[in-house]
């Protein structure tokens, strides 16, 4: 059975386990209808021109994994930021693991989407925020149809979350391929501040397909600092759909570290809804082998005096493929917008591919918008210079690549993440650098 | 220390060096002068092992070992240092981290452990003071946005840190104001010992007022056409290079 048909029939089974009277179910019904009409995206669509899902759609995925929470903290410790105190919401094969998690309702909510969707006391929040900024697209609609579990994070007005919140998804299925669809909702109310770390990690070699949707609401003068660590096995694929709505005077930064996975697609859309918003999108992608990462970004400037900064760096070797499609949309009333976009790539060998496509649509006439994309090789003169100082070729190459990616790490505000990513990059480049850059 | 025998080199098929013979002993300072395009920088690059240049004939011996086939890093490990005419900008790598990596890689090649951090720090302080470098300068990205003078000072700082046996200064003086020139040449002089040697490549005689050479060579059209004492530099300054061309023409006819 094709995956689409399987999902359609699974939906009927899914309906037996959810409250059909809940308003949310109308939303799900609408979404599944949309998915039924459109199906999975194909390369015929402009937004999917360089990424084909064919190779991952042919697997026979299990849609409803059985509850099997057989992993211990020691199995996942290395994937967690464990050297600092955090709230942690852990899902194993899409199911919440209470013994691995540290949730809270003290001052802020860092808990579960399933209870937020079911419990009466959350209804006003869900009515206000759930599925309000998710566009009708096939992958996000598919997620909405099956929306049931994920992280629910709400930071009330003027509360500063003292600890970062980790949202971790682990996969342990040993027998069958697995498809999961986490649904996250993150609300930082006026003046609130929160740091979030998200990761999807398979612990087995079975194919995994994750189709996640995350809605992020950044209230007036609030700040959300978000890190996505993508360093999964080459048997796992991720379609990440993240939608962010910012109110006036807010800051939201998103760092995406794409260091591994079979196919990773990041649909990252920022919608600015007030003056003086700042949106920061940064990415480091380092790939080898037959891995594929596609960053599809949008910043929609709808109000005057806002900023956006996009800076994505990629290093590609062997048969890996990188795609960057960065959209900036500036409405006619969004005067004095400052929008910057840069995408720089290094191709290590001839077999790697990189597609970079900036798209700027500007309807205002008093704005500062710039974009630049480069695809090149390592600077031979710089290599020679370093070698003439006694640094061997391999280390010199690694140091250059490291330095290339380094300025994206400058804006990482959690030192433990910076340290960890630094180490992972060094490991990937195959050298002991001997110091932290 | 360095012995070059009948060295021929070309770049992209074009012959640049056409039979260089040169011998430098420990404790000596040699200067190579010559008009633009005579092959001065090519000679520096070829000694340092730049792979863009092809050695077509002849040998380069360093401490009696033939180094013609060695990579640039292997030559650096043996104690050869080139101060670049145009130092390369490397964004994202600080001056400090670069020199630390460089020193520890050289030590590694000699079977030594990394230099202890406090020793490294002390040495960096001492040598940067010698070059009158600001501490802030050390945490900046290597050569990025540096002025011409800062770049050259940074080259000599690296030389001071690495303590090479043979230092080749390729046009280290060009584009320097007089203060920077004094700082740079003071640095070079203070690093001089009876065991190391310096090869100064320059277009101008001015540097040689500060770094006094034992031998001056004139390079023209890929060959050393004249060698002499430090007074040769003065003569070149006063008379230019044309008289040497004429002299050569007479000799060949």
UniProtKB/TrEMBL annotation, chain B:
Record's keyword terms, sorted? ATP-binding, Nucleotide-binding
Tell me which InterPro entries the record gives.
AAA+_ATPase, ABC_transporter-like_ATP-bd, FeS-cluster_ATPase_SufC, P-loop_NTPase
Query: Which CDD domains does this chain map to?
Result: ABC_FeS_Assembly
The cross-references to PROSITE patterns, in alphabetical order and at most eight, read: ABC_TRANSPORTER_2
Give the coiled coil ranges. none
Where in this chain does the record put each ABC transporter domain?
2-246
Note the superkingdom of the native organism.
Answer: Bacteria
Q: Which Pfam families match?
A: ABC_tran (PF00005)
Which family is this sequence assigned to?
Belongs to the ABC transporter superfamily. Ycf16 family.
What is the protein name stated in its UniProt record? Fe-S cluster assembly ATPase SufC
Classification lineage: Bacteria, Pseudomonadati, Bacteroidota, Flavobacteriia, Flavobacteriales
Gene encoding this polypeptide?
A: sufC
């Amino acid at each position: 059975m094709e995956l689409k048909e399987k999902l359609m029939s699974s939906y009927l089974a899914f309906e037996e386990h959810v409250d059909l009277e809940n308003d949310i179910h109308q939303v799900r019904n609408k979404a599944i209808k949309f998915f039924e009409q459109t199906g999975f995206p194909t390369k015929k669509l402009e937004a999917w021109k360089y990424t084909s899902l064919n190779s991952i759609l042919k697997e026979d995925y299990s849609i409803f994994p059985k509850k099997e929470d057989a992993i211990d903290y020691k199995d996942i410790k290395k994937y967690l930021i464990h050297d600092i105190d955090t709230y942690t919401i852990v899902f194993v094969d899409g199911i919440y693991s209470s013994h691995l998690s540290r949730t809270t309702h003290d001052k802020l909510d860092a808990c579960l989407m399933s209870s937020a969707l079911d419990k009466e006391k959350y209804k006003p929040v869900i009515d206000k925020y759930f599925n309000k900024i998710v566009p009708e697209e096939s992958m996000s609609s598919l997620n909405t149809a099956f929306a049931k579990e994920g992280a629910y994070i709400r930071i009330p007005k003027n509360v500063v979350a003292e600890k970062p919140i980790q949202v971790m998804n682990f996969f342990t299925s040993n027998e069958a391929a697995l498809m999961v669809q986490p649904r996250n909702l993150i609300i930082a109310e006026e003046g609130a501040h929160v740091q979030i770390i998200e990761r999807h990690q398979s612990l087995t070699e079975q194919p995994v397909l994750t189709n996640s949707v995350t809605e992020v609401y950044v209230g007036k003068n609030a700040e959300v600092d978000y890190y996505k660590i993508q360093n999964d096995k080459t048997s796992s694929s991720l379609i990440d759909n993240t939608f962010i709505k910012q109110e006036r005077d807010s800051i939201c930064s998103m760092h995406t570290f794409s260091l591994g996975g079979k196919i990773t697609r990041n649909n990252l859309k920022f919608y600015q809804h007030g003056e003086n918003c700042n949106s920061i999108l940064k990415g480091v992608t380092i790939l080898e082998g037959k891995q594929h990462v596609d960053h599809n970004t949008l910043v929609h400037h709808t109000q005057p005096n806002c900023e956006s900064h996009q800076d994505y760096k990629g290093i590609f070797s062997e048969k890996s493929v990188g795609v960057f499609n960065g959209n900036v949309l500036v409405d006619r009333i969004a005067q004095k917008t400052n929008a910057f976009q840069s995408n720089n790539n290094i191709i290590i060998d001839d077999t790697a591919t990189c597609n970079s496509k900036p798209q700027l649509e500007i309807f205002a006439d008093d704005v500062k918008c710039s974009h630049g994309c480069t695809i090149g090789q390592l600077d031979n003169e710089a290599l020679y210079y370093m070698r003439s100082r006694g640094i061997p070729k391999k280390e010199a190459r690694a140091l250059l690549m490291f330095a290339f990616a380094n300025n994206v790490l400058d804006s990482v505000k959690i030192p433990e993440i910076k340290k960890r990513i630094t180490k992972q990059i060094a490991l990937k480049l195959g050298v002991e650098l001997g110091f932290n850059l | 220390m360095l012995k070059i025998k009948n060295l021929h080199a070309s770049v992209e098929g074009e012959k640049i060096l056409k039979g260089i013979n040169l011998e430098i002993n420990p404790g000596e300072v040699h200067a190579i002068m010559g008009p633009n395009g005579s092959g001065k920088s090519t000679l520096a690059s070829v000694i340092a092992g730049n792979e863009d240049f092809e050695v077509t004939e002849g040998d380069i011996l360093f401490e009696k070992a033939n180094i013609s086939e060695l990579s640039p890093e292997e030559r650096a490990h043996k104690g050869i240092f080139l101060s670049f005419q145009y130092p390369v900008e490397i964004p994202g790598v600080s001056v400090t981290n670069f020199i630390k990596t460089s020193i520890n890689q050289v030590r590694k090649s000699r079977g030594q452990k990394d230099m202890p951090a406090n020793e490294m720090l002390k040495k960096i302080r001492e040598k940067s003071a010698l070059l009158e470098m600001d501490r802030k300068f050390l945490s900046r990205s290597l050569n990025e946005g540096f002025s011409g003078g800062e770049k050259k000072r940074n080259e000599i700082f690296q030389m001071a840190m690495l303590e090479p046996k043979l230092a080749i200064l390729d046009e280290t003086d060009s584009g320097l104001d007089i203060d920077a020139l004094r700082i740079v040449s003071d640095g070079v002089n203070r690093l001089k010992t009876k065991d190391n040697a310096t090869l100064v490549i320059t277009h101008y005689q001015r540097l040689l007022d500060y770094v006094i050479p034992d031998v001056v060579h004139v390079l023209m059209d890929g060959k050393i056409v004249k060698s002499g004492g430090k007074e040769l530099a003065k003569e070149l300054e006063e008379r230019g290079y044309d008289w040497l061309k004429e002299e050569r023409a007479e000799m060949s006819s």
